[in-house]
Amino acid sequence: MFRRCAISVFLALVGICAWGRTRPHYGGTLRVEIAGDGITSSDATVLHLLLDGLTRFGADGALQPALATNWTADDGSHRWEFSLRRGVQFHNGDPLTADRVVASLNLACNGDCPWTQVHAVGSSVVFVGDSPMPNLPWLLAEKQFLISLAGTADGTAPACCIGTGPYQLAAHSSPQLVELSANEGYWGGRAFADKIEVATGKSIRDQWLDLSLGRADVVEVPAEDLRQAQQQRLTVVVSPAAELLALKIAGTGALANPMLRASIAQAVDRSALSNVIFQKQGEITASLLPQELTGYAFLFPADRDLDKAHELRGGLACPPLTLGYEGDGAMQLAAQRIALNLREAGFDVQAVALKAPQHPDLALRLLPLHGSDPAAAMEILLHAEGEQATVADASPAALYRAEHDFLARSTLLPLLDLPRAYALGPRVRDFVLLADGTPDLASASLEDAP
Q: Are 292 and 410 members of one domain?
């Protein structure tokens, strides 16, 4: 009996010690390195730490309350009312009010909004649309509609990115090193790390070197480098498909003729992009949304048909075309490969780095794959491409028809579904990626935190 009691006590003590080692620790500085700037770049790693939206996506893609605690629709989704969370403050101490939310939203879309009007009613924000807005709660979770302080109480314009998020900008932040401190009064509970330092504009090579030398805790792993990261035995966290690599084809100008656009669609070799450039880390697709989300993506043929491309073009004349791409590395190589495909179909195409406000004939784009609701995910994707297309019927048959009709215009050509990934240093615990591949740094903790 004594032996059994001693064993029981020993096991209990082991359990207590294990719990103490694994539970998240508060404190410390989390060091992150990224290639972009974290605010205006597509990943917006920093922006998601500073600002909240009315709604947000969880790690499983489900929609969750954020600055709004609940929402209701009336008049066939022409009118939505969002009730604001009480007691929330901006980083400078100003209270969150419906008027301030409206001011932020009006600045965010500058008149090109998914709604017709937005106004404050007490502690609620009301959206009204000329057309139904069945997916508005999901749209409002997007980066574009995160809430920032548009004006202070004395009428002056505030500095960048004063929000309500789990972190706030430190006074000595710079474009090269963004320093964040935990928001002690965050409505969602204090973040674990006291500070986050984000080194921006770092090449992937430099990021991985700093990780190996212990100078960084979280670094990026582009999809095309996933295999190399695994060979180097890095600790890598990979999201499901988070971005759609697509070719935007202008519907006006040199490519106003739909036969030319259809010819281009048949000429692109997705297999070469997947196998050679992205090292088989992207899923080949001719559908806007992944197969696991809709169940019908396989119905869109993704194989190249060069003979069909020549047949569709026939004797149609086409002036020289420009194919724009952003960034370098895989995006540049993919653009060059597509340009080669199109030359084989008889088009004269030159791949060029895209600079605002250029509007090339063709553009290689990375578009968001967000949320677990197919209709909302499709509308978010199309909205990111400037398409005001409402997907009102969420049935699989209606979604398929809507997608089929859109793709038949050959103005957007889906190519690959790509994941996002990050490599972690040994200090990092509780690191997760949200459904859109954004790292949830506010939930991460450090093993050696005091």
A: yes
Residue 138 phi, psi (nearest 5) = -75, -40
d(C-alpha 450, C-alpha 430), whole Å: 16
| Phi, psi (deg, nearest 5) at residue 145 | -110, 20
pLDDT tens by residue, 238-270: 999 999 999 999 999 999 999 999 999 999 999
84/185 same-domain check: no
Q: State the amino acid at position 439 in one-letter form.
A: P
Give dist(CA 69, CA 81) in Å, integer.
Answer: 11
Evaluate whether residue 125 is within a structural domain: yes
- What tokens appear for 82 in the block? 């969002």
Token pair, residue 110, equals: 């500058």
Q: Which residue has the tokens 């495909």?
A: 341
State the Cα–Cα distance between residues 61 and 372, nearest whole angstrom. Answer: 5
Residue 395: count other Cβ atoms within 10 Å of its Cβ. 10
End-to-end, the C-alpha distance of the chain in Å comes to 40
| Average pLDDT over the chain, rounded to an integer | 89
Which residues in 58-185 belong to E strands, given as ranges? 63-65, 68-74, 79-84, 117-121, 124-128, 167-169, 177-182
Question: What CATH number has the domain bearing residue 96?
Answer: 3.90.76.10
The CA R_g of the chain, rounded to the nearest whole Å, is 24
Distance CA 110, CA 113 (A): 7
pTM of the predicted structure, to 2 decimals: 0.88
Q: Residue 363 belongs to what domain range?
A: 243-418
Can you give the CATH number for the domain in which 195 is found? 3.40.190.10
pLDDT at 444 over 90: yes
Same domain, 346 and 374: yes
**118 within 8 A of 106, measured Cβ to Cβ:** yes
Q: With 0-12 CB in 10 A as exposed, 13-18 as middle and 19+ as buried, what is 346?
A: middle
